[in-house]
Specification:
Layout (H helix, E strand, L loop, with lengths): L1 H26 L3 E2 L5 H7 L5 E6 L14 H16 L3 E2 L22 H16 L5 E6 L5 H12 L4 E4 L2 H4 L1 H7 L10 H10 L11 E2 L7 E2 L7 E2 L6 E2 L5 H24 L4
Parallel strand pairs: 1-3, 2-3, 2-4, 4-5, 7-8
Antiparallel strand pairs: 6-9
């Protein structure tokens, strides 16, 4: 009897998930590249297409209160928001890139600058081969801007236009209003607030703390080592984070990304 009940509950849950997936596809203006067949991809990858490539680290320290997958989670959330509101093709998320400032913390990963640049170039060239000339990297990192700038220069030589999110500038106007910490850019008041809005279950505010690294250079949890000493891995004051601040920053970020994509549609090719 219990087995039959469990099976029935499982069937209901599966139906609900399937229904939710169908509802998302119905609402969405964009499409996920990974859900297409190659025949469908051929028909959608045209010179008029806008291809969005999310970029977010799946293994990078974010203090004792946020998970290593923090940036990946943010990229996945923003990807879904873009899918709902923009006629774009969204490629699979890139979950490794250039994050040299955090490699002293266990679990953090970073590609070499050249590897991060070339990874983006190779992915875009592969897709551009079939038609698209305009690409947007939905970028959730700060150090990633440099290899993205370099990738854009390489691709411009082939007549391909690449633009990307500057996550700091995207919500700068709103951050100026809501921000209370004196400084910070990593696992801080703002980033923690965003995650309280995006996925509150992944945030442990009981472990949130304040940390302003001493020294200059990549962060390190090791005292006496060259760089910015931060025992927590935080740069800023995560204790000031609230979900309401996160809502304001995230919604501003979504609108900035949509504006970037809209501008990309009209921008001349290099």
């Amino acid at each position: 009897m219990r087995l039959m009940s469990a099976l029935a509950i499982g069937a209901v849950a599966l139906a609900a998930l399937s229904g939710g997936a169908r509802a998302l596809r119905t609402r969405a203006q964009g499409v996920l590249l990974e859900e297409l067949t190659w025949i469908e991809a051929r028909d959608r990858l045209t010179p008029d297409s806008i291809v969005v490539i999310p970029l977010g680290a799946a293994a990078k320290e974010h203090g004792p209160h946020l998970r290593l997958r923090n940036d990946w989670t943010m990229a996945e959330y923003l990807k879904r928001r873009v899918l709902e509101q923009a006629r774009v093709i969204v490629a699979p998320t890139i979950n490794y890139s250039f994050y040299p400032a955090f490699v002293e913390y266990p679990g953090s990963t970073s590609l070499r600058f050249e590897t991060a640049r070339d990874l983006v170039v190779d992915v875009i060239n592969s897709l551009a081969h079939h038609g698209p000339r305009r690409f947007y990297v939905l970028n959730t990192g700060v150090s990633t801007v440099r290899p993205l700038e370099a990738a854009a220069r390489v691709l411009a030589g082939d007549g391909i236009l690449l633009r990307y999110t500057d996550i700091i500038k995207a919500s700068e106007a709103v951050e100026t209003i809501v921000k209370q910490e004196k400084e910070g850019t990593h696992a801080d008041e703002i980033e923690t607030s965003m995650m309280l809005y995006i996925e509150p279950g992944s945030v442990d505010m009981s472990k949130a703390t304040k940390d302003y690294p001493s020294g200059v250079g990549p962060l390190t949890p090791n005292p006496g080592q060259a760089g910015g000493y931060s025992p927590s891995g935080i740069y800023g004051d995560a204790t000031l984070a609230t979900r309401d601040k996160g809502r304001k920053v995230v919604e501003a970020t979504v609108q900035a990304i949509l504006q970037d994509i809209d501008g990309l549609k009209r921008a001349p090719l290099p």
